[in-house]
Amino acid sequence: MRATNRVVAFVVGLALLVVGVAAVLWWTGVLGDVWAQTPTALDPGRVSEVTDATWFGWAATVSGVVLGLLALWWLLAHLGTPRVGTLTLAGSDASGQLTIDVGALAGHVADEARRLPGVVGARSTVDLDRGRYVLVSTLQVDPEADLPALADDVAALVARARDVVGIRRLAARTHLAVRRRARGGPRVV
User: Which stretches are transmembrane (predicted)?
Assistant: First the structure.
């Protein structure tokens, strides 16, 4: 879905950019120098020729319905949240089902991340992204933290979370938000 959104946003943005640049070039007269068939003024009389044509009503109706359905599809696709509530663990069979509350797992990962050297704040969630479970964490990091060592600690934390859950396909995405200044440092007023 993200890839589709990006492609559509790029195409619409590019079309709007082209139309905007063309409008500015037409207004300044530069477009007429480049393209000899550019009209010097808009003729509103030609608009009625198009709108009075027999095909125009049908074309406008079909276009409106298609755009409305696309808009509805886009809105419905964005209503659902990619958050995951529970995961079925390995060992589930006909005798019973083992599940884990991923909110608790994400909370535990965030708690453990806050204990890492240089981390001053953390939050985690588990999302469903293209059919894969993704542990998404954002860590607030002190600017003086040792980032390579922190990266190793985070990788070990994610590996432990994978082992606890027992899902090898559990991917991880960690954002390190480095603070601008050290906590408790001098402040100029």
Answer: 7-27, 55-76
